[in-house]
């Protein structure tokens, strides 16, 4: 009698450097079906024991974990010359794609929902960190790859940690070679970058990076090259969230900064302690957040119409300019490039290339116009929104250099722009403290 088919592949969902994931159906003996996800090691890697052992380590660890905030593993098997893991199918999105979607629709993660999401993620990590074997011995599990792609948000508002493929545990068959760093550089802890031994506090640092990025609406450690990113992580120099997001008070800023301390001894002692800190803040502030709120938020952003490429709302422009002015207040970074993507100062000189000193509808829509360059050749003007998003920047020290011919209307234009987008008090401070004295000098 032919062997009954236990799983039926429906479609391919994703692929990575070591494995690929499929939507499938688990078929029981009575013909009942259950939707599952199947993670299969790439056939080309099956001949390499190192990759096979890493894959089986993930399955072995996941079998020990049974928590609502961790993707459940049901089965492990081998078929057609390759190994596979049968997992819970989460109907939703990973956090990286949600972050990208927010950028598309011109929104940001609300502070209460960001705290709720990371707290739920930490609950799953706390379960893994505290897990023991049948004899009561600690398993010593450390995820080591806590990052947005490995945090799944279901359409029902559930938060689940997945992919323990790089996890460290006492039971591992495949041990990390000395000096080998595993994980995504932007979310690694400084001790992992340095090649030192890591424990559960490395996951706390990674969770802190995720939370910082959700609240700041930008990346924290991201250089132009991998080496630049590694250098940023090693320094662990974290800009203040209060300067980047007006909805983040100083006490919450300090809580996030504690998780990002370069010295592991100064971080939260456990994932459970960080959960208590985040949920305690929500309670003190009277902020009620549940999975229903997260589900409604996901529904709203995925049903929202994306911001068209040729248009930008006044609200979005106001936020961009506000971020730039706040960046100028970070005196310890004066004259330097901030270690934060998108937080560099506006290049004031480029304001002079926007429609002859006036902000036209084309400028607001992001339409570039040709113009004569300094060398007499035709160049493309820099669209206003691109400029404000930090894609073309120089240090703000150029503000102190008086431009010949056109310098004054550049500053007039900047002051008018601030008034246009409704920054009010900030625009008046810039006008009275910088523009006015400059013109009268």
User: What's the tally of helices?
Assistant: 15
Given helix and strand content, the structural type is: alpha+beta
What is the radius of gyration computed over CA atoms, rounded to a whole number of angstroms?
A: 25 Å
Output the strand order for the largest sheet.
1-2-3-5-4
CA-based shape? globular
Provide the residue-averaged pLDDT: 73
What are the segments in which pLDDT stays under 50 over at least 5 consecutive residues?
Answer: 169-182, 308-313, 322-412
Amount of beta strand: 5-15%
Distance between the termini: 95 Å
Count of beta strands? 10
Classified in CATH, the superfamily of the largest domain is: Transferase(Phosphotransferase) domain 1
Describe this structure in words.
The protein is globular, with a radius of gyration of 25 Å. The chain has 441 residues and is α+β, with helices and mostly antiparallel strands. Helix 3 (111-130) runs antiparallel to helix 9 and helix 5 (200-216) packs antiparallel against helix 8 (250-259). It contains 15 helices and 10 strands. The strands form 3 sheets. Strands 1-2-3-5-4 form a 5-stranded antiparallel β-sheet, with helices on one face. It folds into 3 domains: 7-88, 2-Layer Sandwich (Phosphorylase Kinase, domain 1); 92-303, Transferase(Phosphotransferase) domain 1 (Transferase(Phosphotransferase), domain 1, Orthogonal Bundle); 314-440, no CATH class. A hairpin with a 4-residue loop joins strand 7 and strand 8.
């Amino acid at each position: 009698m032919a062997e009954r088919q236990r799983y039926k592949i429906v479609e391919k969902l994703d692929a990575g450097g070591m494995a690929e994931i499929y939507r499938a159906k688990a078929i029981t003996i009575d013909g009942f079906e259950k939707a599952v996800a199947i993670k299969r090691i790439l056939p080309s890697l099956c001949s390499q024991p190192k990759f096979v052992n890493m894959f089986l380590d993930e399955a072995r660890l996941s079998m020990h974990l049974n928590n609502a905030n961790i993707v459940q593993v049901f089965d492990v098997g081998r078929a057609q010359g390759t190994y596979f893991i049968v997992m819970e199918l989460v109907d939703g999105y990973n956090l990286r794609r949600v972050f990208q979607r927010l950028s598309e629709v011109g929104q940001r993660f609300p502070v209460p929902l960001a705290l709720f999401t990371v707290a739920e993620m930490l609950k799953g990590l706390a379960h893994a960190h505290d897990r023991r074997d049948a004899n009561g011995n600690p398993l010593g599990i450390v995820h080591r790859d806590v990052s947005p792609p490995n945090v799944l948000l279901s359409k029902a508002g559930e938060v689940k940690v997945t992919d323990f493929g790089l996890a460290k545990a006492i039971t591992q068959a495949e041990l990390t070679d000395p000096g080998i760093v595993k994980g995504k550089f932007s979310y690694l802890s400084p001790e992992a970058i340095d090649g030192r031994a890591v424990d559960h506090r490395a996951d706390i640092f990674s969770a802190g990076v995720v939370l910082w990025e959700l609240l700041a609406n930008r990346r924290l450690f991201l250089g132009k090259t991998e080496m630049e990113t590694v250098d940023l992580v090693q320094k662990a120099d974290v800009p203040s969230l209060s300067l980047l997001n007006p909805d983040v008070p100083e006490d919450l800023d300090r809580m996030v900064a504690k998780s990002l301390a370069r010295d592991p001894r100064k971080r939260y002692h456990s994932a459970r302690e960080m959960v208590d800190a985040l949920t305690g803040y929500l309670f003190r502030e009277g902020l009620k957040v549940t999975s229903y709120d997260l589900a409604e938020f996901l529904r709203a952003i995925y049903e929202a119409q994306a911001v068209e490429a040729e248009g930008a709302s006044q609200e979005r422009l106001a936020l961009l300019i506000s971020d730039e002015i706040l960046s100028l207040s970070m005196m310890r970074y004066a004259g330097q490039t901030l270690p934060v993507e998108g937080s560099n100062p506006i290049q004031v000189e480029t304001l002079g290339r926007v429609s002859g000193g006036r902000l036209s509808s084309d400028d607001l829509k992001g339409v570039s116009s040709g113009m004569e360059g300094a060398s007499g050749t035709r160049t493309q003007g820099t669209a206003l929104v691109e400029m404000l998003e930090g894609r073309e920047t120089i240090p703000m020290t150029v503000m102190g250099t008086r431009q010949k011919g056109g310098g004054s209307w550049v500053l007039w234009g900047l002051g008018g722009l601030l008034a246009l987008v409704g920054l009010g008090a900030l625009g008046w401070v810039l006008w009275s403290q910088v523009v006015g004295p400059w013109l009268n000098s």
